[in-house]
């Protein structure tokens, strides 16, 4: 898949037009994120700026077995904590400093193509989490459309 195609797919997911996922908006004063964040290898992360916001795709499939052993709420808390960790990490980079909003897509990319690259066409989408930098430069979750099932 070409990078430009992937960026378009990320933009569609962020807008909700391709995900079909519902969810309630998190309040502006969302509290601290619960759960222990995962350390996702760089090859399972795609980051792209788009229309004034930062889009991050996190492939949590390498952690599928670990997450299957958790309750749905525990797995969702871990996915949320991981999204918050990477939203904060990438939005703090100099090249993304001007982008106040970050949308993180939680996915499972189960298959690789013939060149051993992720096959995004067959990925399982678990939802999106949106974070915004507040006046104190801290990232706060402003929306959660996460429908995380550890065993899709």
Could you walk me through the main structural features you see in this protein, from its secondary elements to its overall organization?
With about 150 residues, the chain is α+β, with helices and mostly antiparallel strands. Helices cover about 25% and strands about 25% of the residues. The chain contains 3 helices and 5 strands. The chain has helices at about 5-15, 65-70, 70-90; strands spanning about 45-50, 55-60, 100-110, 125-135, 140-145. A 5-stranded mixed sheet has the order 1-2-3-4-5, sandwiched between helices. It is globular, with a radius of gyration of 15 Å.
- Tally the helices: what do you get? 3
Helix content: 25-40%
Helix/strand structural class:
alpha+beta
* Major β-sheet profile: 5 strands, mixed
Strand order of the largest sheet: 1-2-3-4-5
- Our Rg estimate from Cα atoms comes to 15 Å
Helix-strand pattern: HEEHHEEE
**How many extended strands?**
5
Shape, per Cα inertia axes: globular
Which segments are poorly predicted (pLDDT under 50) over 5 or more consecutive residues?
1-32
Assembly of the depicted chains: single chain
């Amino acid at each position: 898949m070409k990078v430009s195609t992937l960026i378009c797919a990320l933009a569609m997911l962020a807008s909700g037009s391709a995900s079909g996922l519902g969810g309630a908006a998190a309040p502006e004063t969302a509290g601290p994120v619960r759960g222990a964040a995962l350390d996702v290898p760089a090859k399972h992360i795609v980051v792209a700026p788009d229309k004034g916001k930062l889009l991050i795709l996190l492939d949590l499939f390498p952690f599928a077995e670990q997450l299957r052993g958790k309750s749905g709420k525990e797995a969702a808390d871990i996915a949320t904590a991981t999204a918050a960790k990477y939203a904060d990490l990438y939005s703090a980079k100099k090249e993304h400093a001007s982008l106040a909003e970050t949308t993180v897509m939680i996915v499972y990319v189960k298959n690789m193509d013939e060149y051993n690259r992720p096959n995004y066409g067959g990925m399982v989408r678990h939802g999106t989490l949106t974070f915004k930098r507040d006046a104190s430069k801290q990232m706060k979750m402003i929306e959660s459309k996460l429908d995380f099932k550890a065993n899709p």
